[in-house]
Amino acid sequence: MSGPEVSAFGSGHEQVVFCQDEESGLKAIIALWSTALGPGLGGTRFYPYADENAALADVLALSRAMAYKASLAGLDLGGGKAVIIGDPHRDKSEARLRAYGRFVESLHGRYYTACDVGTFPEDMDVIARETSYVTGRTTAHGGAGDSSVLTAYGVFQGMRACAEFVWDSASLAGRTVGVAGVGKVGRHLVEHLVADGADVVVTDVDSAAVEAVQNAHPQVRAVADTAALVREPLDVYAPCALGGALDDETVSVLSARIVCGGANNQLAHVGTEGLLADRGIVYAPDYCVNAGGLIQVADELEGFSFERAKTRATRIHSTMLDVLHRAKDEGVAPSTAADRIAEQRIREISRLRGVWLP
């Protein structure tokens, strides 16, 4: 393995499982940060990591964020995540997905899987042939379908909360919003922004994704890449692709007053949020605003109701406002305030598990 060694020991995780099936070519890692509130629920990311070390670092960070996301969303779920190492366009197969499903089943319900980057509801249907601990399935199989629908809706609600905090109005009408990544979540987010009257600028490494958005919304403007987008005169910047979008260079040139997007792990390093605060930029913690997808697939465990899930996702607006006001009152960064709210709920609710029930 290249790069600095990453170890699950000392990371605070309850359990990390390395999964390998030589016949199918499966190499996967399942990480459980905490099951204090309930079984870990988190998507399976199918991605061509440079090496096992990179995959481990990603799944450790993602699973921890899922625990905080579930807690903030008021769900009785813990934090889990999985990664499958490989190119989903080339390496995904029925045998590999079903082999992965066997490993999920071996955890006996400590972990429920769902969709993420590189996986889709149809893949969950394949995995479900080997395990019952799957959500985010197709509607044909009684599932919630594409979880990016409510992920985007939740990000939009979080963005409205930030706008209310900064400009005393929850409307994005007349504001310029830059969306980086318009594949799954970003595409749906653009729909909400256009409907609200925002001026939208987009970019994506996939030109077909940009073309699809502009065909649906001709008023949307596109720029060449993210480097160009962050230099645009923006009111809001929405990173909706992969993590690490907010590095020092990006923060130094960003004109937006608000950063609120659907991508996970947006901060490139620990000090990034401080740099945003120094420039007067309000940052919406990603795991707070992108919880709509988790809410959607979690609702499937009760027998899916889109309206019920959407109602729950609407509460992201009030949660985000609570985070921003607590951050202001306590003189801390929004992510610190969000962490404190999530950790308080984990402590208070998990304590009840100490009360023995037959």
UniProtKB/TrEMBL annotation:
Pfam families: ELFV_dehydrog, ELFV_dehydrog_N. The active site is at residue 81. The keyword Oxidoreductase applies. One of its GO terms (biological process) is amino acid metabolic process. NAD(+) binds at residues 181-186. One of its GO terms (molecular function) is nucleotide binding. SUPFAM superfamilies: Aminoacid dehydrogenase-like, N-terminal domain (SSF53223), NAD(P)-binding Rossmann-fold domains (SSF51735). Coiled coil: none annotated. Keywords: NAD, Nucleotide-binding, Oxidoreductase. CDD domains: NAD_bind_Leu_Phe_Val_DH. Residues 145-354 form the Glutamate/phenylalanine/leucine/valine/L-tryptophan dehydrogenase C-terminal domain. Transmembrane segments: none annotated. Belongs to the Glu/Leu/Phe/Val dehydrogenases family. This is Glu/Leu/Phe/Val dehydrogenase. It comes from Mumia zhuanghuii. The lineage of its organism: Bacteria, Bacillati, Actinomycetota, Actinomycetes, Propionibacteriales.
